[in-house]
Write a structure and sequence with these properties.
Blueprint lengths: L2 H4 L21 H32 L2 H35 L9 H13 L3 H21 L2 H8 L16 H24 L1
């Protein structure tokens, strides 16, 4: 007997199916449905705002309407920029400072396949997370527009608190505003971590 009889022919490893994502194709029908839904939502929002504009103009308080809307829009932009900026910066830094390694264990090799699949969509995911969190927090912050306007238009009540010797207006105007500022900073820190 020769060694050739005992040699086992080397078989190529079985073909494992690779995980491949295919983009779902959206046809013209679905684009039309999406456009109609967006157009309908914009029409309903416009009708609601226009009704308020007409009513405030009718009673002679259009300045109140525009002040509230500018405060809401400004707070939305401010909240979106603060939280979206901090979270986006942390995502960017985390990606830049990641360690490059070659996977050795089987679990790491499987994870590396998913990383390769996600890599082409990395920028979309980055901007999507940043914009989504910024918009969510911006809309939450814009709900506190009355508290912010009260803080910037506060006045003294002339009565002091016996415990801390502060004017009572501090608890009505300043303290709620300081709670909002603290909430903004804590949310930004929590989402960053």
């Amino acid at each position: 007997m020769t060694n050739a009889e005992y040699d086992v022919p080397q078989q190529p490893p079985p073909n494992r199916p690779t995980l491949q994502f295919q983009r779902p194709k959206i046809g013209p029908f679905w684009w039309t449905v999406i456009a109609l839904v967006v157009l309908g939502a914009l029409l309903v929002a416009f009708a609601d705002v226009w009704t308020e504009v007409l009513w405030f103009n009718q009673v002679g308080f259009s300045d109140v309407f525009w002040t509230s809307w500018f405060a809401r829009i400004g707070l939305f932009i401010l909240g979106a920029l603060i939280v979206g900026g901090i979270v986006g910066l942390n995502l960017f830094l985390a990606f830049r400072m990641r360690k490059a390694y070659s996977p050795l264990a089987a679990a790491d090799r499987n994870l590396e396949q998913y990383r390769r699949q996600i890599q082409p969509y990395r920028r979309w995911i980055f901007w999507g997370i940043t914009i989504l969190l910024g918009a969510m927090f911006g809309s939450a912050l814009s709900a506190g527009w009355q508290t912010v306007l009260l803080f910037f238009n506060q006045f003294s009540f002339g009565t002091t608190d016996p415990q801390f010797n502060l004017d009572v207006s501090f608890y009505v105007f300043s303290l709620p505003f300081l709670r909002i500022v603290t909430s903004v900073l804590m949310t930004a820190l929590g989402l960053s971590l």
